[in-house]
Amino acid sequence: MPINIGIIGLGYWGPNFLRNFVTAEDSKVIICCDIKPDRCKKFATLYPGIEFTQNSDEVISNPKIEAVAIATPAYTHYSLVKHALRSGKHVLVSKPLTNDLTQAQELVMQSDEKDLILQVDHTFIYHPAVERLKNVILNGELGQLYYVDSVRINLGLFQHDVSVVWDLAPHDISIMEYLIDRPVQWVQAVGARHAGQKVESMAYITVQFEDNILGHCHVNWLAPMKIRLTTVGGSRRMAIYDDNLVTEKVKIYDRGVVMNSIEGIYDALVQYRSGDIHAPAIENVEALEREVKHFLHCVQHHKKPITDGRAALRVINILNAAQESIINEGQRVYMSESNKQSEESRNHASTTLPLK
């Protein structure tokens, strides 16, 4: 039987939720909500079989609704997700879960107590290119993992309720945390406010993971061009994921360095190795389509989503530490206490992507 869906928020991201849930075989959109009447009118014309309202409570309290998709500003997530969980609804919510660690922990606990699915929309985890990178790492093709470095910059869109750390960085931090899959030791970040903004418009975030694996991301609203680039370095090979490319989004470079030493010579000799470049075939499927299918699968079969509340907590923990580091002029924030929580949450997390 199809799962009855309610959608809250039809601004920037909500219409994507609506489109994917409408076309999914295992769901039926019953009701949607947005505070702006013109949006409701617009989508009511496009989807005449769906009810539209300006009151979110009419979605959450609707007895027909089994799951709610929430695509509203981050500061509203806590109250809406909490209300939905208390009403017995499964929840898919846009990133970040919240920008408050304590509130996020409360929502995760509530979803556990109610035995409900709480999935956070870290969309790129469901991208076929990121899935391929994950498989390449797990298969040992890159050798020992050294680093994950990412750049996510563009001109705008400025957000007034959150900084660039909470707007753009959740994408890269979630990818980094998913690919590296190790506890975090410390976080260090610097940021700057420009163009009259009261929040950071650019930031550099460095994350030290266990096993000497370094993560780094640069996020910026004030760049002249759009760049979406992730580099993964290993002891045997290196990989690049360029989301701006239409084809060949992932390239595997058979390149690296070899450290040799000669008896009697104390300094290591570095030899550079340069081999072929391989562009694996990547499935041409929208990441959000795969994510929606995953959510529906988890609701139907009561499985833990890959990007469940605990995965979101690990991301929020890093973002929270990055913001703290920025406030304290780039001081490192050590994560020894939160590592225990991260490991507990990691042990509960799914490592597969069941889409069927």
Concise structural overview:
By secondary structure, the chain is of the alpha/beta class. 35% of the residues lie in helices and 30% in strands.
Question: Which spans of ≥5 residues are poorly predicted at pLDDT below 50?
Answer: 348-352
What Rg do the Cα atoms give?
A: 21 Å
What's the CATH first level of the largest domain? Alpha Beta
CATH H-level superfamily title of the largest domain: NAD(P)-binding Rossmann-like Domain
Beta strand %:
25-35%
Number of domains: 2
Number of helices: 11
Instruction: Tell me the helix content.
Output: 25-40%
Total strands: 15
Question: Which architecture of the largest domain does the CATH hierarchy give at level 2?
Answer: 3-Layer(aba) Sandwich
CATH topology category name of the largest domain: Rossmann fold
| Biggest sheet overview | 9 strands, mixed
Q: Strand arrangement, largest sheet? A: 14-13-12-11-7-10-9-8-15
Structural class: alpha/beta
Distance between the termini: 15 Å
Mean pLDDT: 91
Secondary-structure element pattern, one letter each: EHEHEHEHEHEHEHHEEEEEEEHHEH
> In one word, what is the shape?
globular
